[in-house]
Structures are given as C-alpha cells and as structure tokens.
Amino acid sequence: MREKKISSLSNEKVKHLVRLQKEKSYRQSTKTVLVEGKNLLLDLVQRHSPKEIFITEEHLNLFSKHNPTIISQAIAEKISDVVTPEGCFAEFDLPNNRFPAKISTGLILDGVQDPGNVGTLLRTALAFNVRTIFLIEPSCDAWNPKVIRAAKGSQFDLTILPCSWKDIPTNIPLFVADLVGDDIQTFPQQKRWLLVLGNEAKGAKIPSSHSFHQITIPMSGPIESLNVAQAGAILLYTLRSP
C-alpha cells in the first residue's frame, strides 16, 4: 500500500484539522472531531473506527494496520492543542446521539464551563455506568480538545445530549447537588434518577416546571465546598445502582 504523506503547512487537510481543534461550529457542521494522544488513540481504535489517522513517522509501527497519513513535526505542532505534541492524531465521526427511549439514570451538567471539570465528570459517569449526559448551555462543549483529554475519550461510549431544560424528562427524580440539602448518605437509594450539577460559581438553575430534591455531601473538615468534579464523583458513586 502506498504511503500517504502531508508535508505542507498550507495543505487543505491541515487547515481542516486545525479548524476541528479550534471551532465548535466547524465540528458540528462536519460532524467529525480530531482526537490526539498516542495512548488515547491506541485505546480508541480498538473500539471505534477512525476516518483517518495522522502520525509523525516514529509512530508508524503502532498504527501501520490503519494505513495512517504521515505528517511532519511542524504539522503536528500546528494542529495540536498541547505545547509538546506526541504526533498522533485521528479524525473520528461524531456519534449520532439521540434521546434514549428509556432512561434509568443520567447526569445533567447545567452550565459547567471548565473543560477539565466536564471531562472528568464524563469519565466518572462512564466508570459508574451512567451513560446519558445532558449538557445545558453554557456548559463546555463535550468535544472540546481539553474535554476529550480529561475524559480520556469517554465521549465515544456515552450518549451526550446538548439541550435545554425543556428537554429534560419530568418523570424521573432530579437530585441537585447543593451546599444545603439532604445528606446523600441517608437518602434512600433509587433505581431511576438524574443527578444535576450546576455552574462552578452560580450553581444549577432549575426551572419551576421541574421538581427536585437537594442533596449534599456532609463534610467534617474546614472546607466550605468541593470542586464540582470532586462532588460529582462522590455523588455518582453514592447514587449508583446496587
């Protein structure tokens, strides 16, 4: 098979990859996303088929069976979202996520804006088999490069639904993380629930159309509150189905 190479920084494919990294609207219009990182790609390509892989030559042995396109180090630096790129990239189709017919558990991120927090919460949700994620604006885009890195590619195994509160089911109990609420340790375990985590500074803004229960994590140390990703991990673990 003939080896594919790109060496020019002005190549149209390079411009395309740069836009995938930087522009949410472009990712939405092309319905594709660029993922980078050697270990992340080695894991992802075992479960999901990339459209095309782009690597610097030293990684050829790792991805040779995928017929990768060889790129220069200069191109790797141009399309990368990190300071020191590893030189491994792949373009994937975005999952065609639709609202599930039946939802048992789910996570609602209401205006969570930090990419690291969103990515960590996606990874944690998948770890506890909570696979439906509602992203309410202005939450950070789930396909932001920083979110993908923090989530370790968990996005590809989740149903992620950008939406507004009018799209959130009203027939499933809502549990809202708050500094004031019922102790999560004493709350009866439920088979169906949606956990709401709000904006890092302002919290969640639940409309009057939705009833909800406020829950809190009891803390004995001299700490006022936890980071939203830390709190989310504890609550997802505690709420998990037996």
For the CA atoms, what is the radius of gyration? 20 Å
Percent of residues in beta strands: 15-25%
Order of strands, widest sheet: 8-7-6-10-9-11
The global form is: elongated
- Overall mean pLDDT stands at 94
Superfamily at the CATH H level of the largest domain? SPOUT methyltransferase, trefoil knot domain
- The H-and-E topology, N to C, reads as EHHEHEHEHEEHEHEEEEH
Helical residues, percent: 25-40%
Continuous helix count: 8
CATH C-level name of the largest domain = Alpha Beta
Summarize the biggest pleated sheet: 6 strands, parallel
* Structural class label: alpha/beta
Through-space gap between termini = 51 Å
The CATH architecture of the largest domain is: 3-Layer(aba) Sandwich
The total strand number stands at 11
Low-confidence stretches: none
- Using the coordinates shown, work out and report the CATH topology of the largest domain: Alpha/beta knot
Number of domain units: 2
Notable characteristics:
2 domains, 11 strands, 242 residues, 60s Ribosomal Protein L30, Chain: A, Alpha/beta knot, 8 helices, 6-stranded parallel β-sheet, 5-stranded mixed β-sheet, alpha/beta
Layout of secondary structure:
Blueprint: E1 4-6, H1 12-22, H2 24-30, E2 32-36, H3 38-44, E3 52-55, H4 60-63, E4 69-71, H5 73-79, E5 88-93, E6 105-110, H6 115-127, E7 132-136, H7 145-151, E8 159-163, E9 174-183, E10 193-198, E11 213-216, H8 228-239
Parallel strand pairs: 1-4, 3-4, 6-7, 6-10, 7-8, 9-10, 9-11
Antiparallel strand pairs: 2-5, 3-5
Helix pairs in contact: 6-7, 6-8
